[in-house]
User: What shape does this take?
Amino acid sequence: MVAILVVATVVSGFAGSPSPSPPVREGAPLRDPSQLVSHRGVLRARLVVERRQVEVAGRRLWSLTYNGDYMPPTLRIRPGDRLELAMENRLGKYTNLHVHGLHVSPSGNSDNVFIHIDPGQTFHYSYRFPDNLAPGTYWYHSHAHPISGVQVAGGLSGVIVVDGLKRYLPPGLRDITEHVIALKDFQIQGDAIRTQDLHIGAPTNRTVNGQLNPTIHIRPGETQLWRLANISANIYYKVHLDGQRFQVIAHDANPVDRIWSADSLLLAAGSRFDVLVRGGPPGRTRLQTLPYSTGSAGNRFPQATLATLVSEGTPTHPVELPATFAPTEDLSHAALAARRTVVFSENKAGTEFYINGRQFDMNRVDIRSKLNTVEEWTVRNDSDEEHSFHVHTNDFQLMSTNGRPHHAHGWQDTVNIPPRGQVVIRIHFTDYTGRTVLHCHILNHEDAGMMAVLEIVK
Assistant: This one.
């Protein structure tokens, strides 16, 4: 049995640097989640939500599950597909489902986060995706207000893959091995994953696909596609692979116009990166999350080992990557229908959170935007901790952070806002009208009021 890794995450007031987490024993080979795959343009699926005792990170724990698993099936679709999904709620609380990042209707039986599925009910979701849906890695999770944080932390999150990303790769890389690297963490209370009194700064356990330090096998010189996804409720990951650089081909399921590389990648709450990883010389390399602070009023997350990359076997000749990748839309010179300021703030105790001075009210429209227009939003953070800004239905282009221009290589659906700082984004409202939301994707903050209603009208 593998020992549980306890990662001490410390709240503000910490003196000095956070200590690295204790060494963790190398685990079993990485298990990619099972898949539910569309066929002839349709994916018909059923998700049963219930509390069950499952094996996670080497222990038997009570968890909130989809289809009986802590790491539930990956939903795999193509642009233009239809998803018919029945969700049966066997919990003692209401729940619902959000397909994070997907450009799809926010109304009716589609990505409608105002739906409550009560205990004992089965709700039939129906999603019709556009032909130009961006390929990449998305995720699904509970968005039941104000209990989304505890439900996601309890286990209710999984991955969605939209196929089509590999078509932009050179022919020699279109059949490469790919892995889901789903980053989920959990806190323990007795023999269960905690779903009450959830504190971001409490000791937590970081897993990859529900495993503790799994091994990922690669041949020297081989290139693999890794789908890095932060599907935790609240915490951040600063992902680093010793001695290597990530080659980024998509950010928040938006293919980049040119591949860019990074020594480490910050996955704020809710964000994803699709990256290429190349096998180095024979040996073992640690995939880690590095120490990271979200500000004096936030949290300090210590270093931890996430997985071990094992390079072995017959070497393969590396394939050269292209200078350009996928076409993207640039909003830099778009005509603007409106400019808005969106302010994130919180009380001194850090117990109440606000957008433009108000807490969430599902019956109040906070922003009303017109379909087929582009708007520029200045999103300002008036607190002393970072917030992970996320908007539903339409992705956006990041223009600047703290006044420094950002040369985006694609769009995104989540952006980290520095303490006492601001970002400027441009967003194009296309295809869909209806009521949806924008919020902080640190779900404890969302549940405590940091969410607003956006209505898109004709």
User: Anything to note?
Assistant: The radius of gyration is 21 Å. The first strand starts at residue 10 and ends at 11.
